[in-house]
Structure formats: C-alpha cells, structure tokens
Write a structure and sequence with these properties.
22% helix, three-stranded mixed β-sheet, 55 residues, alpha+beta, 1 helix, elongated, 3 strands
Length: 55
C-alpha cells in the first residue's frame, strides 16, 4: 500500500528494519495518509544487546 508522508523523512530511515506509520487510510485515493512515522533502527538495539541489555 502506498504511504503518503508530507513531513521530512526520519534521519535513520535508510537503516530502519521496520517502520510504523500512524495515520489513516484514505479509501477514495487508495493510500495511507501518515501523520507520524516511527523508525526501528537495528544498530540502536544491537548496542543495547552488546552491553548486556539483551536476553
């Protein structure tokens, strides 16, 4: 599904392993209109795991 996000792209967008788009589905246009975007970057979680914070 196409996601429309009019704000600047998050800084770590290219390194993201997953994204969460918060918004609404516009059925008339067939797109998801995102108001906010949450990015999960693997390096952040790998650093916590390496320091003993992982399971």
């Amino acid at each position: 599904m196409k996601v429309v996000y009019t704000r600047p792209k998050p800084a770590n967008f290219e390194q993201a392993v997953s994204l969460v788009a918060i918004g609404r589905h516009d059925m008339t246009k067939g797109v998801f209109l995102a108001d906010d975007m949450l990015v999960k970057c693997p390096s952040k979680y790998q650093e916590q795991f390496d320091q003993g914070g992982g399971r």
